[in-house]
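Figure 3 (text version): structure tokens given as input.
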């Protein structure tokens, strides 16, 4: 598996340029994962260390758009994202439309309206879509459930930031029962 990354770009135009300049090194993209929050990306086990200097580069960064080809090679872009209407999601929309994931209207709506969006070519509906309306504890609960389920099956996501994030969620949440299918207790658990 090969991973190409834009190295932590802050500008959508730079991520788009990196995609255009390096697209030829990968096969046909069959899956796309777009995110708003770095926490969601880390939940999915993707992060890289920023090689820049200064306090803003002290923590590992994560891509906000991951494109996966048929050979499981990945292209990571940091300035194209999802979850609102703006330049970053606009870049994601442009890429997904050009890569054949849907029409401009469909992709634009999906990218704008979701904090996490996972698309696979050939499927009419997203594999995963976390609506933008989820905020606060509801979103924390969903992220904790996703993180714990993936942690159970994928030990590669044991990272300092992911563990700190899970710890933050655990402090807000009910006790765990330890089972991957029901990683949380119920709402009425005492």
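Below: residues designed for each position.
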């Amino acid at each position: 598996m090969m991973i190409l990354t834009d190295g932590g770009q802050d500008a959508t135009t730079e991520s788009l340029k990196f995609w255009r300049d390096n697209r030829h090194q990968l096969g046909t993209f069959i899956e796309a994962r777009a995110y708003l929050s770095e926490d969601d990306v880390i939940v999915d086990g993707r992060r890289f260390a920023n090689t820049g200097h200064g306090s803003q580069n002290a923590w590992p960064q994560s891509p906000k758009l991951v494109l996966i080809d048929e050979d499981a090679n990945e292209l990571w872009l940091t300035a194209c994202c999802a979850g609102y209407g703006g330049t970053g999601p606009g870049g994601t929309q442009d890429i997904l439309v050009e890569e054949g994931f849907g029409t401009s209207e469909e992709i634009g709506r999906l990218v704008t309206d979701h904090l996490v969006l996972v698309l696979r070519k050939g499927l009419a509906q997203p594999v995963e879509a976390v609506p933008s309306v989820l905020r606060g504890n509801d979103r924390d609960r969903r992220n904790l459930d996703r993180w714990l389920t993936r942690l159970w099956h994928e030990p590669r996501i044991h990272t300092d930031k992911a563990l700190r994030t899970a710890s933050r969620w655990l402090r807000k949440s009910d006790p765990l029962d330890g089972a991957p299918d029901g990683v949380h207790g119920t709402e009425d658990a005492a």
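The chain has six helices and six strands.
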